[in-house]
Amino acid sequence: SPNKTPETQIDGNLLIAQSLFRAGVRVMFGVVGIPVTSLANRAVSLGIRFIAFHNEQSAGYAASAYGYLTGSPGILLTVSGPGCVHGLAGLSNSTINCWPMVMISGSCDQKDVGKGDFQELDQIQAVKPFVKYSIKVTEIKHIPGDVKTVLSSCVFSRPGACYLDVPTDVLHQTVTESVANELLTVSDQNQILEETLANLEVGKAASVLRNAKRPLIVFGKGAAFARAEDSLKRLVDRTGIPFLPTPMGKGLLPDTHELAATAARSLAIGQCDVAVVVGARLNWLLHFGEPPKWSEDVKFILIDVSKEEVELRKPCVGLVGDAKRVLDRINLEIKDDPFCLGRRHPWIQAIMKKAKENVSRMEVQLSKDVVPFNFLTPMRIIRDAILAQGSPAPILVSEGANTMDVGRAVLVQTEPRTRLDAGTWGTMGVGLGYCIAAAVASPDRLVVAVEGDSGFGFSAMEVETLVRYQLSVVVIVFNNGGVYGGDRRNPEEIGGPYKDDPAPTSFVPGAAYHTLIEAFGGKGYLVGTPEELKSALAESFFARKPTVINVTIDPYAGSESGRMQHKN
Ligand code: ADP
Q: Any idea where the Thiamine pyrophosphate enzyme N-terminal TPP-binding domain is (predicted)?
């Protein structure tokens, strides 16, 4: 009728934002531009925080880490074509680390596909190797259902990345508000995929464990993702079995626990006869579970949410399911017929003795104040400053070759999910993205990055992002003038017309990285002595403002490729 006001129209941009909000999304990371700027603005207006980056690669790393830290999918928004391609870094990193994330990319108008449209790319094809699942939204009515599907697929079973492709024409289509509400309500009722615990050989696992002479519990970032810390604690308390965390498993139980076998790693994995491996793959990081690092006849009890993973490793006992739920079942089983190794058990004695020896040997090196700095002296000072923060413990972000290797051994993790590092792929350049994700996910915690100058350089412009959002992040750059430090070439290897170029491993010596953040109003420090470092840490940890501490390290300290020299 002529006096009836026309109903409000909802476009694709708003409907996506509404669908995300209804599904619980409160944070997005990304880079805006054609055709997704309005989508980001709509999301913000609904109450979703949009963290705008300089580069989709860093934003993608942030989304992946956010998914890991919070347990809910991290969202990455990108433009079409090149934006989507830059986003592949985050997408692949997410899937390889088993972290849930969804990349949403705009794409060109469906009617212009194949004609060379602006930023045209077959994005569904491009993401294929890196995702669990992808969907192209072909019309506005599919938006709520498709959003729900990618969000739930990425957390289902083994977490990973999913992709949602939104063509420009779909973003611009409209439906009336009442149709939109109806679509949203229908998708609200979509069944959330849920894991069922199949018949588990819990009895067998408990009996193998009970009969072990030298048992070990190994746990990784899958157990951290599952928030299995209380269940692990119960198992360790009840059985007295020593444990070994993988790098990102560190902190699920405190590194300072007397049954921590971290400092006796080679002995623990080389001599254990039964290893319960929880949420950690027996991949290169764990020497494939094979000799010579592991003994020939070690029996594995493998707990993993992924059936494929368990089938691949052919363990003695495979328990497919969520780490926390499976551990709770094992704990119940053991409770009925308890056993505990006790501190005087020869295996426990051997591990504790070895760990003590290694720790005191390391402490001797650590206690020296070496100037110009090697890696150990500043790492000790940073360790002590982090520990002095108490609880809630800072989140540590770590990358680099020597910096990460030394940091893993020296820095102490006391709380779960407080360590983010280069991960399963050894990805360099994740640091700033991870810092931003950690600060956004845990505003109550200080975030401290300890990274090499090379790792930092991949995404150094994101220090502006730290300043813009005033995130509580202190980035400590171990500046040794390059990848692995100075020019380590044998003079006989240097020749040819470009022999006078800097070595491929070298950067400008003495680079003033601290001034980079000052360009945006952040705080920078240049330090080269223990006193200077201590004072910069004290000030910046107290201020909790975006900071870069540029630590001058002897360019010839450390070794090329860290501990991975044999592969380079
Ligand atoms: P790390 O690098 O710490 O060794 P990995 O990334 O190699 O850990 O392994 C993590 C494993 O955890 C993956 O195989 C993944 O399938 C598994 N996983 C992920 N979520 C869960 C969960 N909720 N319960 C059990 N296992 C999980």
A: 15-125
